[in-house]
Amino acid sequence: MADSEKHSRLSRLVGEPGLVGTVSVDRVVSAVASYGMWALTLGIIAFLWLPLSQIVVLSFTENSVLFPFEGVTLGNYVSLFTNEGLLAAARQSAFVATVSAGVATLIGVPLGFAIARHSFRGRSLLRGLVILPLLMPGIIMGISLLILFRVVGLPAGFFGTVLAHSVYGLPFIVLPVVARLAVFDRNLEEGARDLGANGRGVLKDVTLPIISPAIAAGFVFAWLRSFEDFIRVFFVGGTMDALTKEMYGMVVYSQGTEAMDPMATIIVLVVSAALAVAINFRDILEYV
Amino acid sequence: MSAIHRLGDAFERRGKRAKLALMAGPGVGWLLTLILVPMAFLVTVSFAEIDSSYDVVWSFSASNYGELFVGESGLFQTPFIDSFLLSLRIAGATTFLTVVLAYPVAYLLTRLSGRRFKLVLFAVLVPFFTIFIVRIYSWLSLFGSQGLLNSALLSTPLVSEPLGIFEYGIAAVIISLTHAFFPYMLLTLYSSLEGIDYGVIEASRDLGASRLEIAKDVVIPLSAQGLITGCVFVFVPALGTFITPQFLARGKFTMIAEVLTARINELYAINYGAAGSLFLIIPTVIAFAIVMRTTSLEAMG
Fold first, then answer.
1. Closest CA of chain A from B250, distance in Å
2. N or C terminus of chain A: which is more exposed, having fewer CB within 10 Å?
């Protein structure tokens, strides 16, 4: 009795319907497998959190390494907020990321609609092309744009970086929009039209509200990828300030690195919160 | 159908085409001018030369490739080839490890629902909202003989000297790359596993299949598409990775992206860089072809 209770508890644990009349060997295997799966997952989560937890802890400690422990402090945050160069670079990167993600959204949302809702020649090729910015190594995008910009006479800097990052962010907008429209119940639009809404009204009051969490989450991801990109801005950014270039120099010359952990801690908080709001704590995966 | 109807249809078709062009045009233009044209251009430049004022001279030459392949001690004995082969091995190991780690988590996610599902998913994704370069900096102080991992192990009675796997070098690069690319693998695997009808698994269990047989004959074949896509999305970017080996190899070896960056940045040899880039473009194109054959875009959201 106790055994079968345990089994059903385990089944609930893995969300598996209880199997009636299975032999007990299978039950044991099932228990081991589900406990094993959880143990493995928790181990992997611990591995994934290893750098993050070190970053957060070190942002509050005296020393830049964990041992020897020298006490808790907010000094690192002070040195972050007094490091004018780093802050200026962070502001510049945030500006680039906002413009780039904005451009990617303006271009990507209609592209997503075209791919999801229209049939035309080259549609499947276009669907494939959209993933290319995500697939190609960053260094290829950096070098190829550097050469192109040089030949057409576009100086390296803000404009070139925005072009590079906006195409880099495009998949993060288009893919969720297409996926969302694929499972979208078009009867809702049908119904709105029957109730007298015109095309614009249907789009504004029915379609966009339903897919906007996908767009918002896509924007957050595109923004973050631009903000934390190093290799593309390294090639096409010229002498423009960028947070990652600044940090790269800090690590190479081991100077002022105590400001990096607080910065990353703030970013992880802001992005998690933004994403949680964007998706309203609902199925994250649908929009990733 | 009357002529007037046909005319009306034609107008409607043109209207639709104009609307479509307006919707897809900017995106297509972006992808063409910022991805495809630069890539084609890069390949062209790899056959050109650079003059003393660093301008491209449009004369056909294969000397850039010669420089890649022919070393002082013979054919294929160049730092570039060494780096390329090493990068292939590192990317391969990274891909393998992400599959091994992501498969059970992805499978578990498909069996969960509600709050548990969201909790596990959030726990898995949050570490990737840290700035990448800070994460690498964090690995920098975790690895090494004085690093946190080895110090922690040394303080236990289990080990008496620093473990080689936690030293700077290939293992450190592979571990942190596996960490960095884990979510790509997880999300593609999850979306393909989620599509599997659980009834099929139950049916095969009822028919007497063991767990191993179910995994081998049902789950893995049915999720093969996601597996292939995930591998491609990990392997190709890992091949061209720059910051990770830059910091965690500590000069013990260089990966292909570092060789190219050094050439372009220090010597401004963009023709040499372009020729070397081809060794990252070709895998990208192959990967693209694989993804086009195996995956539907809707499945990738």
1. 11
2. N
Q: Does A10 touch chain B (CB under 8 A)?
A: no
* A61: three-class secondary structure by DSSP: strand
State the smallest CA–CA distance between residue B69 and chain A in angstroms: 20
Residue A91 scores a pLDDT above 80: yes
Which residues in chain A have Cβ-Cβ distances shorter than 8 Å to B140?
251
User: Within a 10 A sphere around the Cβ of A176, how many other Cβ atoms?
Assistant: 26
User: What are the structural domains, with CATH classification, of chain B?
Assistant: 46-300 (1.10.3720.10)
Would you give the distance in Å from CA A252 to the centre of its chain?
A: 27
Picking from A203, A213, A217, the residue whose alpha carbon sits closest to that of residue A117 is: A203
Distance from CA of B167 to the nearest CA of A (A): 16
pTM: 0.81
Which architecture characterizes domain A75-287 according to CATH? Orthogonal Bundle (1.10)
Confidence at residue A12, expressed as pLDDT on a 0 to 100 scale: 47
Q: Which of B123, B117, B127 is nearest to B194 (CA)?
A: B117
Total beta-carbon pairs less than 8 A apart between chain A and chain B: 289
Closest CA to B269 of B277, B280, B260, B279: B260
Q: Region B11-24: what's the mean pLDDT?
A: 73
CA gap A142, A244 in Å, rounded: 15
| pLDDT (average), residues A97-126 | 86
Q: What is the dihedral of CA B251, B254, B255, B260, to 10 degrees?
A: 120
Residue A32: other Cβ atoms inside 10 A = 12
Mutate to test the interface with B, among A42, A59, A107, A168 (most CBs of B within 10 A): A107
Q: Does A29 touch chain B (CB under 8 A)?
A: yes
B71 vs chain A: nearest CA distance in angstroms? Answer: 24
Q: What token pair was written down for B209? A: 């299949």
B81 against B196, higher pLDDT: B81
CB within 8 Å: A134 and B111: no
Contacts of A20 (CB under 8 A, 6+ apart): none
Q: How many angstroms separate the CA atoms of A149 and B12, rounded?
A: 40
Q: Alpha-carbon torsion A259, A260, A261, A262, what sign?
A: positive
